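Known limitations

C-alpha cells in this collection are predictions and should be treated as such. Users comparing against experimental data should check residue numbering before alignment. To illustrate the layout, the record for YceI family protein is reproduced below. The input appears on top and the generated C-alpha cells appear beneath it.
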Amino acid sequence: MTTNQLTGIRPGTYLLDPARSSCRITATHVFGLRPVTGTMTLTGGTVTVAADPERSIASAELDAASFLTDDPRRDRDVRGRRFLDTANHPEIGFRSTGLHPDPEGWRMTGVLAVRGGYCDVTVNVRPAVPVGDGYRLTAACVVDRVAAGVTAGRALIARHIRIELDLCAIRLPAPST
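Generated C-alpha cells:
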C-alpha cells in the first residue's frame, strides 16, 4: 500500500494510543484574566485513512472524570454536576463528519458529545509525522462550551474553550485474505 500524497499517511485503520496521546484544555475568565489550563485522558479512538483523503473518518473518546488542573477544588467543581457531570456522563466523544484540505493541513468537521448533548466542532489537523509504528498528529479546535451543554459559570468563564490534541495513531494490521 502506498502513502497518500495529500495526507502523508498510508491508507488503513489506526488506533489512537492513549499512553502516547494527550489532551490539553485552555479556558479564560470572562474578563481576560489568567487562563486556566487543564488536561484530560484520551481513552481511545480510531482514524481510518481512505485512498481519497476526504473520505477519511476519525473518532476519539476522553475520560471526563480525568479533568485535572493545578487546583483540586476547581477540578472537583468542573467534574461535578454544574459543569461536566461526570457521574452521569463519564465520557466525552468526538465523531468526524467531514475532512477538507486547509492551507496548514486539514479541517475536520465533527460532532462533540458532552453531558448527553451534542455540538458541531471544526478541528484543525496538522500534517502527520511518521513515528516507528504509526503517525503523530496534532490537532486543535475551539469549542463553544454553552452550545456543548456546559452552561454553568457564564459570569466567570469565557464561552469558548481551546482544546489541543497530540495524538499517536498506531496502524492496525491489514486483514488477512
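For this record: The longest helix spans residues 72-79. The chain is about 5% helix and 55% strand. Please report discrepancies through the issue tracker.
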